[in-house]
C-alpha cells in the first residue's frame, strides 16, 4: 500500500504553513467547587435521572443490599469476584465472575452488584474503572438491573475533580442514570439497551 | 483513490430548491418545531447551571485550536500511544480508502455482519453502503439511526438523525420492519421494541464499528459519549472493534476532557451528563474486544485545515446545538442541506470537505443562512459560524467569476456607492419607483425583485432622500 | 457648553427609503444637546457586498467610511446591522481607526455615551419591540432599546413572543432563499399579531422593511416604526403615521 500516513502528515504540515500560533489555553474555569453536602447533591442529581438512590450508613450496606434485592424479588445476581463478602446477602444466588461468566449466563441473571471508582455529585454520575469490586465492563451492562454501592469518600463534586482521580488507561464507564434516549422528538425517555434500572446506595 | 466525496449526497438539488420541498411538508415543519423548541429551552437551563460556562467555552476553543495548530505532532503521539496499548492504527486519505480498510478488516474476521454505534465519520464516508457492496451487512444500533435505516431514509440531524419523524411515524416504520412491533407509539414502547430487536445482534455479533467523540493523544484513550447503552454493547461485547475517527477529534491530554465532558452533554442533549461515556485505551486483556483498530480519516480535513478562516470548523464536537437554534434549519429540516452534516455547522463544514468551488450544491450551502448569529452564540467551542459563512461566500463568488448577472449587478452597485454624487443620482432614479406604488407600497416587481414581492410589499422610495433634505435645509 | 460633535451615518437604506428616520435621529440628538453633522460624502457600509461574498467591493467602501467619519467625536447609525458591519467587519477589511472605534448604534449611544434612558419622548400607542439579530448578537445592545422604550410617556410596551428569532431578512438571503425567508417571516408576523400591538418597532430599517412588507401585504394594519422615530416623537412634535 502506498503511504497514506506519510501523505496525510505532509498534508497537515502543508496546511499549517502559516504556522498558526493560537492563544494559550486559559483554565480559569472552576476546577473544583465546594458544596455544603456533596453526598446530598449526588443523591439529588442521581435521582433526577430516574435512578433509585438511597443514602445509607456504611455499617448498614449489607442489610440494605438484602432489603433492596428482596424488595425487587431478585433471586440471582452476578457479582465481581472481589466484592466485600458481607455484600453477598443471603437468600440470593450469587454468581461471581470467576471464571468469567458466559454472555448467555449474564443475560439471564436478575441483576448485578458492583462498587465504583468515583462519583460526580454535580452531574449525578458514577464511574466504573474495572478496579476493586467492579469487574469487567460487560458485567454492569448486560443485566437489566444494576445495583451500585458508592462510598462517600469516592464522591467528587465537579467533573474536573472526578477526572483527576481516574486513570485514563483503565477501561472507564461513566454512568448517569439508567439507559435512556432522546431520539424520539428530542425528549428523554429511560430504558433502552443498558440496564433499565439503576439503583445506587451511597454509604457514609 | 480520489473520486467524489460522499459527504454530500449525489443528486441533491441546491439548497433553495431542496428547501422548497421541505417547506411544503407541514408534518415535517410541525415535528421540527416541536423538537427544536423543546431542546432550546432545556439547553438554556442546563447551561445556566454552570456559572463558568463562558470560560469553559473559551477553554474548549483554545484546546481545539492548539490541537489543530500542532495536529501532526498529536497524530503521531496518538498513534504511538494506541499502538503501545495493543491497538492498530490505520490512515485513510479519503472515504474510499477508509471504506476499503474497514471492509478488509471485517473480511479478515470472516464476518458478514457488523453492529455499529452511531458515528458521523462513518456516515460521512458512506461506510454502510460500501460494506453492503462488499457483502457485509451493517446494523445500526442507535435508536435514531435504526429508524433511518429501517425506514430507508436519510438522516436530518447530527445527534438525532430521525428528528424529522414523530412518534407515530416511527411506530409505523417499526411495524413494517420488526418481527415484534411496538405496542404503541409511546416513546417507552418504541424504545422497548428497539431493545428486543437488537438484543440478539449485540450478544452474537463478532465485529463492531464505532466513531469517536475524542481521543487522548498522550494516553491513546478513545472516548464515546452516548445514551442508550448500544455504544457500550458495541464497544465491549464483540471480539473486534474498529473505530473510524476524523483526525481532528484529538485532545492533547486527559485533563482536557474535563472541559469537553461539561460542554458536550449540556449543549447536545441538554443533560448535565449523558447516560453513558466509555473510555478505552488499546486492548485490555479479559475486558472487552481482543482486537482494536483505529482508522484516522482525512477526507477533506487537511484541506479545511489549510484555510485560515475556515479551519475553525474543525473545532466542532458535533453537539448539534447550532442546528437546534437555527431558524433556517427549523423551517427546512436537515435533508435540504444534502449532507450528513446539516444546519449551520453543515453549511460551513460540508463545502469545505467537498473542497470543490464548482460544486453547485455545496456552493449553495454557505448562503443557507440569514447570518442571524444564533449558532455562534450557542456553539460550545465558539466557532464563529457567520464569519466562516461569509468567508466561504467569498470563495464561491471568486469561483463563479465576474460574468454572472449577480456579479455584474454587484459591481454596478459598488461603482455607484463608490461616489456620493453617483449614488445621489441613483437615489433620484430610484425615487421614480413611487409611480409604481399604490398607497405608498409596491406589490409587484419584475424578476429578481419578484423574489421579494412574492410575499412582501416594498415601500415606494420617497421623492426626497435624507441627503437631499439635508442639503436643502442644512447644507 | 457644547455637546459632542456627532456624525450621523444614516445608512443607505434609511437615507434613500426612510428619510424620516434620519430626520428623527437628527431631532433626537439635537434635543439631547449634540452637535450633529451629516457628511455628504457617505454612502454605504458595504454590508450587502460583504455578506453576499463580494469582499473586494466591500473593501473600498470600508476605506471610504474610515475617511469620511474620521474627524468626529462619535458616529451614530440608526442600525445595529450597519454599526455591527463597521465595528466587527471593517477592521478585517480596511483596518481599524477612529471612525470604526467611535461608531455606535443609536440605542448604545443614547444609553452608554449620553447616559440617558428617558429622552423626553411621547408616543401614545401600543408597541412591541423586535430585537434585530445584529443588534442583539453582533453588538450586544441587550436591554438598552427596551429601557428607552419603557421611559416613553404614553407608550404601552407589550412583549413580543419568541422575540429573539430572526425575521428572515438576512440581506440577499431574502432573495436567494426567498421561500425559507418567507417562512421565517410568517412566524415573526404571527408573533407580532399575537401581541395586539399597533406598532412594531426595531433598531433596523432593513428588518422593518421586511416585516413591514409582509404585514402590509396581509393588510394587518400594524405599522412598523423605527426606534428613532418613536424616541423623537413628543407632545409638541408627535410621530405622523403618514410617513411610512
From TrEMBL, chain A:
Residues 113-202 form the LUD domain. It comes from the Bacteria. SUPFAM superfamilies: NagB/RpiA/CoA transferase-like. InterPro entries: FTHF_cligase-like_sf, LUD_dom, NagB/RpiA_transferase-like. It holds the Pfam family LUD_dom. Gene3D superfamilies: NagB/RpiA/CoA transferase-like (3.40.50.10420). This is L-lactate dehydrogenase complex protein LldG. It comes from Prauserella shujinwangii.
Automatic annotation (TrEMBL), chain B:
InterPro entries: 4Fe4S_Fe-S-bd, 4Fe4S_Fe_S_CS, FTHF_cligase-like_sf, Helical_ferredxn, LUD_dom, LutB/LldF, LutB_C, NagB/RpiA_transferase-like. The keyword Iron applies. It holds the Pfam family Fer4_8. Residues 307-336 form the 4Fe-4S ferredoxin-type domain. GO terms for molecular function: 4 iron, 4 sulfur cluster binding; metal ion binding. GO terms for biological process: lactate metabolic process. This is L-lactate dehydrogenase complex protein LldF. Keywords: 4Fe-4S, Electron transport, Iron, Iron-sulfur, Metal-binding, Repeat, Transport. The keyword Iron-sulfur applies. It comes from the Bacteria.
From TrEMBL, chain C:
GO terms for cellular component: cytosol. GO terms for molecular function: oxidoreductase activity. Residues 6-86, 127-211 form the Cysteine-rich domain. It holds the Pfam family CCG. It comes from the Bacteria. PANTHER family: LACTATE UTILIZATION PROTEIN A, UNCHARACTERIZED PROTEIN YKGE. This is L-lactate dehydrogenase complex protein LldE. It comes from Prauserella shujinwangii.
Amino acid at each position: 500500500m502506498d503511504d497514506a500516513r506519510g501523505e496525510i502528515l505532509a498534508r497537515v504540515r502543508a496546511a499549517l504553513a502559516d504556522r498558526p500560533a493560537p492563544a494559550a489555553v486559559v483554565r480559569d474555569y472552576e476546577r473544583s467547587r465546594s458544596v455544603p453536602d456533596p453526598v446530598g447533591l449526588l443523591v439529588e442529581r442521581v435521582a433526577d435521572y430516574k435512578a433509585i438512590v438511597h443514602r445509607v450508613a456504611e455499617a448498614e450496606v449489607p442489610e440494605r443490599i438484602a432489603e433492596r434485592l428482596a424488595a425487587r424479588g431478585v433471586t440471582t445476581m452476578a457479582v465481581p469476584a472481589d466484592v466485600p463478602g458481607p455484600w453477598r446477602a443471603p437468600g440470593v444466588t450469587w454468581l461471581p465472575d470467576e471464571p468469567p461468566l458466559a454472555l448467555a449466563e449474564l443475560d439471564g441473571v436478575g441483576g448485578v452488584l458492583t462498587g465504583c471508582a468515583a462519583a460526580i455529585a454535580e452531574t449525578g454520575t458514577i464511574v466504573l474503572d474495572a478496579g476493586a469490586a467492579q469487574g469487567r465492563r460487560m458485567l454492569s451492562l448486560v443485566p437489566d438491573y444494576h445495583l451500585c454501592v458508592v462510598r462517600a469518600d469516592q464522591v467528587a463534586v465537579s467533573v474536573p475533580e472526578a477526572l483527576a482521580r481516574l486513570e485514563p488507561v483503565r477501561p472507564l464507564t461513566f454512568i448517569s442514570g439508567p439507559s435512556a434516549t432522546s431520539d424520539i422528538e428530542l425528549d428523554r425517555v429511560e430504558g433502552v439497551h443498558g440496564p433499565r434500572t439503576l439503583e445506587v446506595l451511597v454509604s457514609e | 483513490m480520489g473520486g467524489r466525496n460522499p459527504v454530500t449526497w449525489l443528486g441533491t438539488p441546491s439548497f433553495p430548491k431542496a428547501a422548497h420541498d421541505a417547506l411544503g411538508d407541514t408534518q415535517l415543519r410541525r415535528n421540527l418545531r416541536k423538537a427544536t423548541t423543546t431542546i432550546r429551552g432545556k439547553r438554556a437551563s442546563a447551561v445556566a447551571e454552570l456559572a463558568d460556562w463562558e470560560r469553559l467555552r473559551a477553554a474548549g476553543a483554545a484546546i481545539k485550536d492548539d490541537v489543530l495548530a500542532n495536529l501532526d505532532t498529536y497524530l503521531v503521539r496518538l498513534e504511538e500511544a494506541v499502538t503501545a496499548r495493543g491497538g492498530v492504527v490505520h490512515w485513510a486519505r479519503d472515504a474510499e480508502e477508509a471504506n476499503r480498510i474497514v471492509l478488509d478488516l471485517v473480511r479478515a474476521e470472516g464476518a458478514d455482519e457488523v453492529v455499529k454505534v452511531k458515528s458521523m465519520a462513518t456516515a460521512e464516508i458512506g461506510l454502510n453502503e460500501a460494506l453492503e457492496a462488499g457483502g457485509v451487512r451493517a446494523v445500526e444500533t442507535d435508536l435514531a439511526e435504526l429508524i433511518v435505516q429501517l425506514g430507508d431514509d436519510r438522516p436530518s440531524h447530527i445527534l438525532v438523525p430521525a428528528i424529522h419523524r414523530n412518534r407515530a411515524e416511527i411506530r409505523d416504520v417499526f411495524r413494517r420492519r420488526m418481527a415484534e412491533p411496538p405496542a404503541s407509539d409511546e416513546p417507552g414502547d418504541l424504545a422497548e421494541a428497539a431493545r428486543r430487536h437488537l438484543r440478539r445482534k449485540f450478544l452474537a455479533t463478532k465485529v463492531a464499528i464505532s466513531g469517536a467523540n475524542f481521543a487522548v493523544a498522550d494516553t491513546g484513550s478513545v472516548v464515546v459519549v452516548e445514551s442508550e447503552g448500544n455504544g457500550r454493547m458495541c464497544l465491549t461485547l464483540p471480539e473486534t472493534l474498529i473505530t473510524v475517527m476524523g483526525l481532528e477529534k484529538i485532545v492533547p491530554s486527559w485533563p482536557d476532557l474535563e472541559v469537553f465532558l461539561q460542554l458536550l452533554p449540556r449543549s447536545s442533549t441538554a443533560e448535565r451528563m449523558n447516560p453513558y461515556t466509555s473510555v478505552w485505551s488499546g486492548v485490555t486483556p479479559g475486558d472487552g474486544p481482543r482486537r482494536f483498530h483505529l482508522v484516522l480519516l482525512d477526507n477533506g480535513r487537511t484541506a479545511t485545515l489549510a484555510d485560515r478562516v475556515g479551519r475553525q470548523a474543525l473545532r466542532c464536537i458535533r453537539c448539534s446545538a447550532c442546528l437546534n437554534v437555527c431558524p433556517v434549519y427549523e423551517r427546512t429540516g436537515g435533508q435540504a442541506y444534502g449532507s450528513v452534516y446539516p444546519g449551520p455547522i453543515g453549511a460551513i463544514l460540508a463545502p469545505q470537505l467537498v473542497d470543490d468551488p464548482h460544486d453547485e450544491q455545496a456552493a449553495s450551502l454557505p448562503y443557507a443562512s440569514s447570518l442571524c448569529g444564533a449558532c455562534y452564540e450557542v456553539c460550545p467551542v465558539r466557532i464563529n459560524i457567520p464569519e466562516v459563512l461569509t468567508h466561504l461566500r467569498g470563495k464561491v463568488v471568486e469561483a463563479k467569476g465576474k460574468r454572472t448577472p449577480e456579479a455584474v449587478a454587484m459591481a454596478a452597485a459598488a461603482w455607484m456607492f463608490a461616489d456620493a454624487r453617483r449614488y445621489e443620482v441613483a437615489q433620484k432614479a430610484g425615487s421614480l419607483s413611487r409611480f409604481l406604488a399604490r398607497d405608498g407600497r409596491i406589490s409587484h416587481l419584475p424578476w429578481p425583485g419578484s423574489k421579494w414581492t412574492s410575499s412582501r410589499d416594498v415601500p415606494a422610495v420617497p421623492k426626497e432622500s435624507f441627503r437631499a433634505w439635508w442639503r436643502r435645509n442644512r447644507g | 457648553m457644547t455637546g459632542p460633535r456627532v456624525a450621523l451615518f444614516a445608512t443607505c437604506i434609511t437615507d434613500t427609503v426612510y428619510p424620516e428616520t434620519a430626520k428623527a435621529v437628527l431631532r433626537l440628538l439635537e434635543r439631547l444637546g449634540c452637535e450633529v453633522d451629516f457628511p455628504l460624502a457617505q454612502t454605504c457600509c458595504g454590508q450587502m457586498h460583504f455578506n453576499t461574498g463580494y469582499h473586494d467591493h466591500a473593501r473600498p467602501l470600508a476605506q471610504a467610511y474610515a475617511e469620511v467619519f474620521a474627524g468626529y467625536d462619535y458616529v451614530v447609525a440608526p442600525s445595529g446591522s450597519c454599526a455591527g458591519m463597521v465595528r466587527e467587519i471593517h477592521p478585517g477589511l480596511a483596518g481599524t481607526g477612529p471612525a470604526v472605534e467611535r461608531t455606535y448604534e443609536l440605542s448604545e449611544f443614547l444609553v452608554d455615551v449620553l447616559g440617558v434612558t428617558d429622552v423626553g419622548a411621547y408616543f401614545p400607542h401600543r408597541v412591541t419591540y423586535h430585537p434585530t439579530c445584529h443588534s442583539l448578537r453582533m453588538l450586544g445592545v441587550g436591554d438598552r432599546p427596551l429601557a428607552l422604550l419603557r421611559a416613553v410617556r404614553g407608550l404601552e410596551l407589550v412583549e413580543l413572543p419568541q422575540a429573539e428569532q430572526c425575521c428572515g431578512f438576512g440581506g440577499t438571503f431574502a432573495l436567494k432563499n426567498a421561500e425559507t425567508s418567507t417562512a421565517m417571516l410568517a412566524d415573526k408576523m404571527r408573533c407580532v399579531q399575537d401581541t395586539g400591538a399597533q406598532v412594531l418597532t426595531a433598531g433596523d430599517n432593513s428588518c422593518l422593511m421586511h416585516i413591514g412588507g409582509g404585514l402590509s401585504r396581509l393588510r394587518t394594519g400594524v405599522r412598523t416604526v423605527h426606534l428613532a422615530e418613536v424616541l423623537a416623537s413628543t407632545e409638541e412634535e408627535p410621530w405622523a403615521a403618514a410617513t411610512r
